[in-house]
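Consider the tokenized backbone below.
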């Protein structure tokens, strides 16, 4: 088969990484199919290893470094990590290609920017840095808001006693989650975790310093991600991952590493927030509140209010969601007389809005034009 014939055939693949205007695409070709298509094309023996970790081309699908067709740019079609794409004009010898079409996405996350995800794996540490319930709760709510399956993994379990682990486990079960305790350093439950990731596209998320990069290194040999250290002063991790990238798991499936951050944004509406708490879902499945628009604060006949651990978290998140919704409504209303302003510790306050341009100083050009106009009028 000639190179010209190969170039006319449609190829499907998955975008593993995006950098600048280039996209690393893993093609849906088995080894036999790849060898059949590239037979007789010089230089293809090197394509299987382009930017890939596994050294043996016989066990890894081919990768092409692709650009985006101008037509996609003109219609505003973005290409994201995780996208299923059609690749045209493959240059097998050079390891290049062009993305001609983006297939419909089954879902899409904005932060991290990734498409076609099956589940989210939240990774936290039980020690070094210590487990913070409020921070964990915030990440869980953000993960729940995606509508995807949420799994919870607790690293560094070798640093706590069995009694402490049992206590944490019981606490999180009450939250509605079955945490998996692992230790990357000691190799505890890594194989068990790998089984739960098979044939899935999984996004790893969590704060900095909990061992996400170390976990990927343990799950995928030879990937060699850079690992950071914990800040002694803040007891927090330093960012080591700068962008989103998909890695192929040895037993099948894809794993996405994401940049760590300590406080994810909550961008849900006040009415949506309750559905992201398993404890609230459980209560509402048994009984109903008196009012259909109940926000579960001080309303009479509310079945959610009660003595459960995360209720205070819910109330704090609710206030944040209400403040955000108020700000959005005022931005949408040009006649609003107040504006939102962020002050210390992320708190929001509202202050009067100045009338547009009333207190703005005129530019020198405008002043000069006004003087010229006055001069012309005086001469007339």
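A designed sequence for it:
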């Amino acid at each position: 088969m000639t190179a010209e014939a190969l170039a006319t055939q449609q190829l499907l693949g998955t975008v593993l990484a995006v950098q600048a205007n280039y996209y690393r695409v893993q093609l849906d070709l088995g080894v036999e199919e790849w060898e059949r298509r590239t037979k007789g094309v010089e230089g293809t023996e090197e394509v299987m290893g382009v930017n890939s970790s596994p050294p043996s081309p016989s066990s890894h699908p081919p990768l092409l470094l692709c650009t985006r067709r101008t037509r996609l740019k003109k219609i505003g079609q973005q290409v994201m990590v995780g996208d299923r794409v059609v690749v045209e004009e493959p240059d097998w010898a050079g390891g290049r290609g062009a993305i001609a079409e983006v297939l419909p996405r089954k879902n899409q996350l904005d932060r991290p920017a990734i498409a076609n995800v099956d589940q989210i794996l939240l990774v936290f540490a039980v020690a070094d840095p210590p487990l913070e319930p409020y921070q964990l709760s915030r990440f869980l709510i953000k993960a729940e808001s995606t509508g995807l399956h949420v799994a919870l993994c607790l690293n560094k379990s070798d640093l706590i006693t069995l009694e402490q682990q049992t206590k944490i486990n019981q606490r999180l079960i009450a939250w509605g989650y079955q945490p998996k305790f692992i230790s990357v350093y000691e190799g505890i439950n890594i194989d068990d975790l790998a089984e739960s990731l098979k044939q899935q596209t999984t996004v790893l998320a969590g704060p900095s310093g909990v061992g996400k990069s170390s976990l990927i290194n343990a799950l995928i040999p030879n990937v060699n991600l850079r690992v950071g250290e914990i800040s002694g002063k803040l007891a927090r991790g330093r960012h080591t991952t700068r962008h989103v990238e998909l890695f192929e798991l040895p037993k099948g499936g894809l794993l996405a590493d994401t940049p760590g951050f300590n406080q994810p944004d909550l961008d849900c509406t006040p009415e949506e927030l309750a559905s992201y708490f398993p404890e609230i879902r459980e209560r509402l499945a048994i009984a109903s509140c008196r009012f259909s628009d109940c926000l579960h604060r001080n309303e009479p006949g509310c079945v959610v209010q009660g003595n459960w651990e995360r209720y205070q978290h819910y109330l704090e998140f609710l206030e944040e969601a209400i403040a955000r919704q108020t700000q959005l409504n005022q931005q949408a209303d040009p006649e609003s007389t107040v504006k939102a302003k962020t002050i210390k510790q992320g708190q929001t306050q509202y202050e009067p809005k100045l009338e547009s341009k009333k207190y703005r100083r005129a530019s020198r050009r405008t002043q000069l034009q006004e003087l010229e106009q006055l001069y012309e009028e005086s001469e007339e």
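Confidence is low (pLDDT under 50) at residues 1-8, 46-58, 230-241.
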